[in-house]
Amino acid sequence: MPPARFGDILNAMDIPASQQLLVLYSREQIEKRVAELGDAITRDYAGESVIMIGVLKGSAIFLADLARSVHIDCTFDFVAVSSYKKGRTTSGAVKLTKDLDEPIEGKHVIIVEDILDTGITLGYLRKIFMQHHPKSLKIAACLDKPARRIEPIEADYVGFSIPNQFVIGYGMDYAEKFRNLPDICILPPDFPL
Ligand code: PRP
Where in the sequence numbering do the catalytic residues fall? Predict the structure, then answer.
């Protein structure tokens, strides 16, 4: 894996130049894969309207790219959840902190996530969205970490299936930082933060 191309961003964060983040998926690889997912969604929903629901904050960048790669009638909504995560761990409890703005009853819904990890967040959201009786409900996840799954849930559209490594960039954070890195990178366990 090549070293990441954003030394200046790390400098701005006061992270020593000797520390290198490894790129798991480059911006070019992400762009190509998102275009493929967009094509699949365009085919699957030809002639239909879809609401894409982003789960804040991590999904924002993936949703922005995915929505521009589909060629169908598409609107957005966003929800926010608090999952009582701290650093790299989670307690498993999820709470909705921002609800949908628009009704989804009778509509085609795609939940858009940056990462499907334990599945607790998406399991929770799928359950509450199904209570609103959408016409259909699918999941698009930029990354899938199947080895971490606790809730039995799968995404219908997956960008990349990855091993159990802590990833940052392309919307994903560590302690709210790194979301604006254009590549998906691995955060080494000993990274100084
Ligand atoms: C991340 C990600 C998903 C969730 C997936 O969100 O965006 O929402 O974790 O994990 P799970 O499958 O184990 O539930 P996070 O809580 O880090 O918040 P963020 O989106 O604001 O980064």
Answer: 117
